[in-house]
Amino acid sequence: MNDLIVVTAYCPTEEQEVALEKCINSVLKCGKHIALISHSHIPIHIQKKCQYYVYDYNNEISDDYNLFGDNFFAVDNIIISSTFFQKSFYGFAIYRMFSIASQLATNFGYKNIHHIEYDCELLDETLISEHSALLETYDSILYTDNGNENGFIFGSLKSFKVESLPDNFKNYNRDFIESEMRRIEPKHLETFTKSLFINSGNVLFKHSSELTDQKFKKGPKFVSIGRHYNLFYNDIDKTLNVIYRSLTDNPENIVVIVNDNKIVRLNVSPRHWYINQLGIFDEIDYVRIDNSKKTLFEKHFDNEFREIFKRKSFITFS
Question: How far is 304 from 184, CA to CA, in rounded Å?
C-alpha cells in the first residue's frame, strides 16, 4: 500500500464525533489505509474503521495573542478587524499530530500521505488517486484561494510525498513553531505550513475552487471553536462593544457582565448577528460572556493590555 490517508481530529462534542464518522466513512471508499490521530478519545466503533488509531493526550494550546492571526467580520458598511476572533493557538497540537503521522508513514513504508481534517468529507475518491499520480512529479500538493503560492492556503486537504517531508513537519519542534509564528505575516498557521513546503521541495498549487461540492465537502463552523463572538473597540465614541453571531438553529440567551456591576442581555435569534455597546473602554477592566450553560469568554484589561486591544480589535466604517 503506497498511500496513507491521515485524518486529524479533536472532537469534544457529539456533533463533532458525528462529523468525524462521516469523514471516515467517506474516506473508506478509497480503499486506502487510514490513520486517525486525535487529541480527544474517539468511540471504539469509529476506531475500528481505521488501520491506525493514535490518541495524543497533549492537546497543547496557547492563549498568547502574539501567535494569533487577524480575522474579519464585514457586513454592509462595517468591518470588524480583530486578532481576538481567534481564542487560542492550536498550532502546537496540530503539529504534534503531523509528526505522529509522518513517523507512521515513514516507519511503515508508505510513499504518500493525504491529510484530511475530521470535519470534511471526501465525495470523489478519485481525488486521492489523482494526487498520488501528481506526487510522482511533485513533492506536495496544496490548495490556495488563487491557485498559486501567494494565496491563502485551504488546509483541510493536502498531500505529500513521504521522502520529501520537511524536517520541521515530520519532527515536532515546538520552539521553531513558536519563533516562526512570531515572525511570519500574515500570522496564520496555514502561512507557516505553506512556507515549510515551499522551502523544501516542488509544490503544486491548485485552486481551491477545484474542490467542488461534488468532490469535497468542507467543514462547518462549530460553535465550540468560539470564533462567533468577540469584543472590539470603536475609536469614534471610545467604546468597547460585543459582537455575537448565532451559528445554531435555536434561540440563545447571552449575558455579558461588565466590571461585575453591569449586565447586558442579548436575546439571540437563530442565524442572526448582534452588536451591543458595553461602555467607555477606558472605564472597563473586566468583561465576561456567558450563555445559559457556561462562561464562554472573559477578559481582564489593565492599562497596557487595553491599549494593545484597541490596536488589535476595532471597527471601521466605509
Answer: 24
Amino acid at site 30:
C
Low-confidence ranges of the chain (pLDDT < 50): none
Supply 2's cell numbers: 503506497
Q: How far lies 141's CA from each of 6, 91, 94, 130, in Å? A: 15, 20, 19, 11
Answer whether 0.85 is exceeded by the pTM.
yes
pLDDT in tens, 189-241: 999 999 999 999 999 999 999 999 999 999 876 555 678 999 999 999 999 99
Distance, in Å, from the CA atom of 135 to the CA atom of 112, rounded to the nearest integer, reads: 8
Would you state the pLDDT for residue 293?
Answer: 86
What are the residues whose beta carbons fall under 8 Å from the beta carbon of 136, sequence distance 6 or more?
none
CA distances from 162 to 111, 144, 155, 317 (A): 5, 21, 18, 48
Model pLDDT, residue 247 = 87
Question: Distance between CA atoms of 73 and 280, rounded to whole angstroms?
Answer: 22
